[in-house]
Design goal:
The protein has 354 residues and is an alpha/beta fold. The protein folds into two domains: 2-172 and 331-352, 3-Layer(aba) Sandwich (Rossmann fold); 193-327, Glycogen Phosphorylase B (Rossmann fold, 3-Layer(aba) Sandwich). Helices cover 38% and strands 16% of the residues. It has a six-stranded parallel sheet, with helices on both faces. Helix 3 (72-82) packs across helix 4 (94-105), helix 5 (118-125) packs antiparallel against helix 6 (130-142) and helix 11 crosses helix 14 (317-324). The longest helix is centred in the first third of the chain and has 15 residues, at 27-41. It is globular, with a radius of gyration of 21 Å. The model has no long low-confidence stretch (mean pLDDT 93).
C-alpha cells in the first residue's frame, strides 16, 4: 500500500548526496540503496552524488572509506546537471559540506539525515571532545529544512543536544532475501552458534561479545581494522570476513542468536535482517536496539550482554520473524519521501538560479 501511495504522486527527481558509498559495506549505504530502489519502483527518478564521481583518497587504516577530493565548482556542476526536484544530503563529510554550501548560496531548500554517531567514533581514535564534534554536526544540520533520524530515542537525544526540525526515517529489510529456512551453515562447530555481523572496528564493541563466557561458537561475519587484533586475542572465534546476499541470509538462518554489542549505532540494520530470518537478537538496551526490539518475544536486552544472549536462546524463531516483518523498505521510503523539501524554484532549472 505504501508503494501504491508513492506511485500516485507525480514523478519526482531526487538527488541524494552521500560521502558513504561503495565499496563501503554498512547500514548507511544499504539504506540509501534500498530506499532508492523502492522509490524507483514507484516511478520516481533517483540519482546519487557520491565519491565515485571524483578523485578520492583512502582513510588511513580504513581503506574501504574514501574521502572525496572535490571542489565546490565540480559539485555545483554535478548538481545542476541532475536538475533535481529535491536534494537530500545524507552525510556530513566533504561532499555533504559542499552540497550544503551550494544549497545555501543558491537559496534552495534541502533535507539532511543523521546516520552515525561520529563524535563518539572520533573520540575513540583521537583526543577530540564529543562536544566539539556535536557542535559541528549541529551547525551542519541547522541549515536543513528537516533532519531525518532513524529512531525516536535518537531524536530525543539530539533534541537535548540542541538539534532542531527532526523527523523519523526508520529502516526496512528485504523479507525475501532474509527469511526463515533450514540451518545449512556451521556444521561441525559446537552450538549454540552466536553470530555477529558488521564492521570489525573498535566502535562496534565486538570484544564485549567475544569476552562472554558461554558455551558454543562465536562467529564474526565482517571485516575491518580490528580484525587482526581480535583474532589474535580470541583464537576460538570464527572470523568469516564479509558475506553478502544469499550467503549472508544463510548465516542468519543458521545462527541461534544474533549478538549486537554496539553501544553507539543509531539503528542496526543487521538486527532487522536477523529478525526477518527468524533469528532472535541479544543486545544492550541502548538507542537502536531498544527502539527496534520493543517486543520482548523477538529479542533480549540487558546491561549484561551474556544474560541477554542466554535469554535470547530461549525465544521462539517464529516470533522473531513476525516482528521483523514490521520493517519494510516501502514504509521507510514513504517516510523519506514525505520529509523531502521542494526546491524553492520548482519550475526553474538550477543552472538558471545561480
Amino acid at each position: 500500500m505504501q508503494l501504491d501511495r508513492l506511485a500516485a504522486v507525480s514523478s519526482r527527481r531526487i538527488l541524494i548526496v552521500t560521502d558513504a558509498w561503495r565499496p563501503q559495506i554498512n547500514g548507511v549505504v544499504r539504506t540509501l540503496e534500498s530506499v532508492g530502489k523502492a522509490l524507483t519502483c514507484s516511478g520516481h527518478d533517483i540519482a546519487y552524488l557520491t565519491p565515485e564521481r571524483f578523485w578520492t583518497l583512502p582513510v588511513p587504516s580504513y581503506p574501504e572509506i574514501r574521502i572525496s577530493l572535490a571542489s565546490l565548482g565540480a559539485v555545483s556542476r554535478q548538481i545542476e546537471a541532475e536538475d533535481p526536484d529535491h536534494i537530500h544530503i545524507a552525510t556530513e563529510g566533504p561532499l555533504g559540506l559542499l552540497a550544503r554550501q551550494y544549497c545555501i548560496s543558491h537559496r534552495i531548500g534541502f533535507t539532511s539525515s543523521f546516520h552515525t554517531r561520529f563524535p563518539e567514533y572520533v573520540a575513540m581514535r583521537v583526543p577530540v571532545p564529543t562536544e566539539w564534534s556535536y557542535g559541528y554536526l549541529r551547525w551542519f544540520h541547522s541549515a536543513a529544512a528537516r533532519t531525518m533520524v532513524p529512531t525516536p530515542s535518537l531524536r530525543d537525544d539530539l533534541v537535548a543536544k540542541g538539534f532542531q526540525r527532526l523527523s523519523i526515517w526508520s529502516r526496512g529489510v528485504d523479507g525475501e532475501r532474509f527469511r526463515p529456512g533450514p540451518k545449512t551453515e556451521f556444521a561441525g562447530l559446537p552450538g549454540p552458534h552466536l553470530l555477529y555481523v558488521g564492521r570489525v572496528a573498535a566502535e562496534k564493541n565486538i570484544e564485549a561479545f567475544l569476552a562472554i563466557n558461554l558455551p558454543g561458537t562465536k562467529i564474526i561475519a565482517g571485516d575491518g581494522p580490528d580484525r587482526v587484533r581480535l583474532q589474535r586475542l580470541y583464537p576460538d572465534a570464527v572470523f568469516l570476513g564479509y558475506r553478502h546476499g544469499d550467503e549472508l541470509g544463510a548465516l542468519y538462518r543458521s545462527a541461534d542468536v544474533l549478538v549486537f554489542p554496539s553501544l553507539t549505532d543509531t539503528f542496526g540494520n543487521v538486527i532487522t535482517e536477523a529478525l526477518a530470518s527468524g533469528t532472535p537478537v541479544a543486545a544492550y538496551p541502548v538507542t537502536g536496539p531498544a527502539d527496534v526490539l520493543h517486543d520482548p518475544r523477538a529479542g533480549a536486552l540487558h546491561t549484561d550482554l551474556g544474560q541477554a544472549v542466554v535469554r535470547a536462546l530461549t525465544l521462539n524463531r517464529a516470533d522473531a520473524r513476525a516482528h521483523g516483518e514490521r520493517f519494510t523498505w516501502a514504509a521507510s521510503a514513504g517516510q523519506f519521501f514525505d520529509a523531502l523539501e521542494p526546491l524553492r524554484s520548482q519550475n526553474t532549472p538550477l543552472a538558471a538560479t545561480g
